[in-house]
Design a protein that fits this description.
This protein is mainly alpha-helical and 71 residues long. It is 39% helix and 0% strand.
């Protein structure tokens, strides 16, 4: 699911993944131990993502979602 595709061809899924990777890098650089449930645009059900969080004993589980207007 690419999500919204903007007038210029920008895909929502690419923006979301890019921001998530940048945030991970920033947190890692500042001493946090981070895990991503996925590193590409493959789909994982919420239960699968939650399972990864449980296995890594995560203190925080965050899901990115952006709202775009597809006009």
């Amino acid at each position: 699911d690419p999500g919204c595709i903007g007038r210029g061809g920008t895909r929502e899924k690419d923006v979301v993944l890019s921001v998530a990777k940048k945030l991970k890098n920033k947190l890692d650089t500042n001493g946090f131990k981070t895990y991503m449930t996925r590193s590409d645009d493959g789909y994982l059900k919420l239960a699968e993502r939650a399972s990864i969080a449980e296995k890594t004993k995560a203190d925080l589980f965050y899901t990115f979602a952006f709202l775009f207007s597809c006009k």
